[in-house]
């Protein structure tokens, strides 16, 4: 069996389980369509019911200064803040600002890595949302080169 066939079969089984009501709603609760469809940082915060984010030294963003290939840019978000319920990675100039959302709790380290597509040079944010609705961020500009040649 090829990998592609295995993925198709898995998706079909998941769909059948959802239709039968056998998938817990908690498994789908982390997905917030309005947040992922938001076009600005402020709209993402509003969709998540969070306050405007405040810059914090306790939130860390891992991102390259220059991304030679905007199709796969490694990004990371981490925090040492207590009572963090969610970590976000936002790319300001992407068509959809919210790139990744990680749900966390006190049993997990709030330290996540992913890869994202950046269509152009942009400010990238790591945002920590706390249980009391506060938001803290770290920001970095990531420059995307065309074809890896700097032009």
From TrEMBL:
Keywords: Signal. The keyword Oxidoreductase does not apply. Pfam families: SoxY (PF13501). InterPro entries: SoxY (IPR032711), SoxY_sf (IPR038162), Sulphur_oxidation_SoxY (IPR016568), TAT_signal (IPR006311). The gene is soxY. It comes from Acidovorax bellezanensis. Residues 1-29 form the signal peptide. Residues 46-149 form the Ig-like SoxY domain. This is Thiosulfate oxidation carrier protein SoxY.
